[in-house]
Structures are given as C-alpha cells and as structure tokens.
Amino acid sequence: MAEQNTRRDETLRYLSEIAAAWRPLLAATLGMGTGMSIIGTVTSAIAPTLVADAGWTKAQFAMTGMLGMLTALSMPFIGRLADLFGVKLTALIGIVAMPLALLGFSLNGGSFEAYLVVFVFQSIICVTTTATVYTRLVVQHVEHARGLGLAIVACGPALFSAIGGPVINGYVEAHGWEATYRMLAVFTTVAGIVTFLLIPAGRAHAVLVTGPKRSAREDYPEIFREPAFWILFGSMYLCNLPLTLILVQLKMLVLDQGITGEGASIMFTALAAGMLLGRFVTGVALDRFVPQVVSFVMLALPGLGLFVLASSWDAPWIVTASIFSLGFAVGAEGDILAFLVARHFRTGIYSSVLGLLTGVCSLAAASGAALLSWTLARTGNFDAFLVTVGTSVVLGALLLLMLRRAPVEEVVGEPVAA
Asked: Residue 269 phi/psi, 5° resolution?
C-alpha cells in the first residue's frame, strides 16, 4: 500500500509540473502548430492548383525543393538568436514574417520568379517559428517531465496537418489559391498574436535579454569541445538518411512493395499513427528510464523496418508494421534530440546546439535523396537504398549509447531551468 501511494504521489508530481507550465507549453504548441512547420501541408494542398493556373511545369516547381537547404543553413543562426535574445523576441520575427510571406505568395500573379523570392524569404526568416526556438520554452520551464512536455509541443504541427489539411484543400478548390493564401495570412496573424501573448516574459526572459552575453568565440568552442555534440552529430546524420522516404517517396515505396489502392492509403495512416505514438511513448520513457538506452531502442526500430522492406516479405501486414516503425522513429526523434541537447548542454547555449544539429538533420535528408537517386538509377528498385540506410540507422542509434550518463547540471554546473 505504501509503495502504491508513493508511485501515485510521484505520478501526481510528474503531471503537476506539466499543469504548472501550461502557459509556455500552450505557447510552444500553438507556435509550432501554426508556424513554419505547416508549410509542407499548405504547399501540398495549394501547389496543384497554383501550378496549373500559373502554367508552370512540375519539373520547374520541383526546383523549389532545392532551396530548402537555405533552412538548414539558417538554423544555426536562428538558434544563436534564441540563446541571445530569448524565445519571445526571436519568435516575434517569424510571427511577423509568416503572414507577410503568405500574403506575398497570393500576390505573385503567376510569376515563378516572384514565387521564388518569397520562398527564399520564408525559408530563411520564418524558421524562427520552429522547434529550435519554441522547444526552449519546455527546457526553461519543465525539468522532471521534460520528455512529456516536448512530446506535447511536437504534436502541434501534426494536429494542424490532421485538421487543417482537409480544410485548406477544400478552401482552395472552392476559392482558388490566391484567396487561400490570404485566408492563411489572416489565420497566422491571429495565431501569432495569441502565441506571442502566451509566451512568458518572466525572469528567464529578463536574464537572457539583459544579462551579460557570452560571445560566439566563447560558446562555440565550448560546444565543439563537448564529445556529446559530435556523438549527436554523427547519430543524427546517420539516422536521418532515410528521411527522404517519409518526405517524398513513401507512395512510390509502397507501390514498389506491390500494395495499391486502399492498402496504400492505410500505409499513410500507419505512418501518422506511428509518429503520434512515437512522440508520447518516447517522451514518457525519456523521463522514466535511462535516456541513452531509450534513444537507442526508439531510433534503431526503423532499421529493422527498413531491412524488412528490402526483403521478400511483402505481406500487407508486414509492410504496414514496417511503415509504422518508420513513423514511430520520426516522431521519437524530435523528442530525443531536444531532450539530449538539454541534458548535455547548459540552457544558455541550448538553441545554438539544437540549431546546429537540426541543420545536420536537413543535410542528411538531402544526402539521402542523392543516395536514393543514385541507387535507383543503377538498380531500378529501392532494395539497395533500404539496406544501406537501414545499416546507417542502426549504427547511428548505437552511437547514442556512448553518451555519458551525467545530466547537464553535473557536467557544467549550471541549472537546467533558467
């Protein structure tokens, strides 16, 4: 009985920390769910109508994907801004820029060059509304339930995609792409104002803004001297090589497995379910168990799925389970990266480190796309790519077992919470 009461009290304390931090968690969830992370959903819904009306070719529009590398290059700078000036001021840049970018898209008049100019502006400036900035709120206000807090915040973009995707698709069919962009500009303006008002501007923000600033010459050598950075660097690169399968190649991969029609639709549902479940299971597990072991298990899971997809086992339920494992790992990875950065680096450089490693993830996704193109050209199927990236994922997960067990307080002597 005493043991049960103790466990109940621990659970209540665990959940009470989440309840006490409801305001920053809500701000981060809303900010991420209506910020730069929604652009994939928005573009997927609007692009077919826009391309047809403007008379662009599909190949021409596909060129915009190459400009996504600008986001990877800008992430380290965005992370540095968040460390120097705090979440409230850094997020304000994107909160103002996001509606302007959407309005700019609505005014391009069918000019591809004008579209590219706005796309570049959005890719560089609006990333201040991504996880690199907003997860800092979780790190500053939640300690013991941090994994669960990060999982809650990561669900913002997923909820928008689930609810907003069909709404945007219906709106663009009824009113056209120009009106849809203007509607979204109004929506993100309102959501941005609410998010900005919700972001706490308490002592943590005041210390970041008015306190003495360390120069980049001091902070970056500290980051690069820490073995944890290079372990995370290698792990994130290896684990994100198959990301192109999730982003743009999933349907083709499923068709290659001999699954069509309704079965293909089920695969997308399995992927989304895996992502949501991966976020929450991983978040709670990181709070309860050894983070290195949890990270290894969660990130190694898709390696097995990739090997199965490369095999001759192509029964629908096996393929579904494999796709689910890919989604589970994608959902888990966001929690794992943010959690481990907060654990091994002091709060003052959290966003700088996360920005660098997020850029590595984007670079890995681009490298994986190049590797896939090369293997498809030579083999005509996905098998060689699946085996290669399956091996890389397992190796990347194994690297995380090399992380030290000491939390950040013991490593650098600085409290986690600002």
From this structure: -65, -40
Tokens 């928008």, located at residue: 160
Residues of the chain with CATH 1.20.1250.20: 1-213, 214-418
| Distance, CA of 237 to CA of 298 (rounded, Å) | 16
Q: What DSSP string describes 202-221?
A: SHHHHHHHHSPPPPHHHHHH
Alpha-carbon gap, residue 401 to 195, rounded angstroms: 37
Q: Helical H runs in 257-315?
A: 262-288, 291-310
**pTM, whole model, 2 decimals?**
0.81
Distance, in Å, from the CA atom of 355 to the CA atom of 132, rounded to the nearest integer, reads 6
Q: Which two tokens stand for residue 284?
A: 């709670």
pLDDT single digits (tens) 118-140: 989 998 999 999 999 999 999 99
Q: Cα separation of 355 and 23, whole Å?
A: 24
> What is the token pair recorded at 408?
């950040």
pLDDT digits (tens, 9 = 90+) for 240-272: 988 877 765 666 676 666 766 556 667 767 777
Residues 321 and 328: their CA atoms lie apart, in Å, by 10
The matching CATH number, chosen from 3.30.200.20, 2.40.50.40, 3.40.50.1260, 1.20.1250.20, for 214-418 is 1.20.1250.20
Is 1-213 in CATH node 3.40.50.2300? no
For 242, 292, 334, the CA distances from 400, given in Å and listed in that order, are: 18, 6, 15
* Phi, psi (rounded to 5 degrees) for 403: -65, 145
Residue 197: CB atoms within 10 A of its CB come to 11
Dist. CA 160–CA 158, nearest whole Å: 5
Q: Are 269 and 392 in contact (CB under 8 A)?
A: no
Report whether pLDDT(57) > 80.
no
Burial class, 1, CB count within 10 angstroms (exposed 0-12 / middle 13-18 / buried 19+): exposed
